Amino acid sequence: MKILSFLLFLCINATSQMMAQNDAPFVYVEKMPQFPGGNEALYQFLGTHIHYPDSCRSMGISGNVIVQFVVDTTGYITNPKIVRGLSCGFNEEALRIISLMNDMNLRWSPGMHEGEKRSVAFMLPIKFALK
């Protein structure tokens, strides 16, 4: 009985690990996720909605923040995080603008791999430049 219970535990554990691996987002797929309207529309969205933090402006700071997020199979963004950040409010603004996409119900076209929708990890550099 103890051996049977142990084997059952191993099977359940292996199955849950396989399921967790299958749920992990892809890094590259045949058709990558796309913002509604394409890259030009994405840049226009960022330019229209992003706010340059006052503290950064007064210090004359500019630079790039790289945000990573997952575009799930329904086109929504999940798990946004800063991969490379800056100080004085840039990181918070980058995360705010990514969350705004979901708030505005802007659904990306999901990634496709082998004919199926897949969750895909996506990196987006956001440039903050003083004019």
Rg calc: 20 Å
Largest sheet: 3 strands, antiparallel
Write the element-wise H/E pattern from the N-terminal end onward: HHHEEHEEE
Regions with little confidence, pLDDT below 50 for 5+ residues? 1-21
CA-CA gap between termini? 73 Å
Give the CATH class: Alpha Beta
Q: Categorize the overall geometry.
A: elongated
Category from helices, strands and their pairing: alpha+beta
Structure description:
With 131 residues, this protein is an alpha+beta fold. The chain has a single domain, classed as TolA/TonB C-terminal domain, CATH 3.30.2420.10. It has 4 helices and 5 strands; from the N terminus they run αααββαβββ. Strand 1 and strand 2 form a beta hairpin. The termini are far apart. Mean pLDDT is 86; it is low at 1-21.
Write the layout of secondary structure elements.
Blueprint (H helix, E strand, L loop, with lengths): L1 H22 L15 H11 L4 H6 L3 E9 L5 E8 L5 H14 L7 E3 L2 E3 L1 E9 L3
Antiparallel strand pairs: 1-2, 1-5, 3-4
Question: Which keywords apply here?
Answer:
TolA/TonB C-terminal domain, about 130 residues, single chain, 3-stranded antiparallel sheet, elongated, alpha+beta, two-stranded antiparallel ribbon
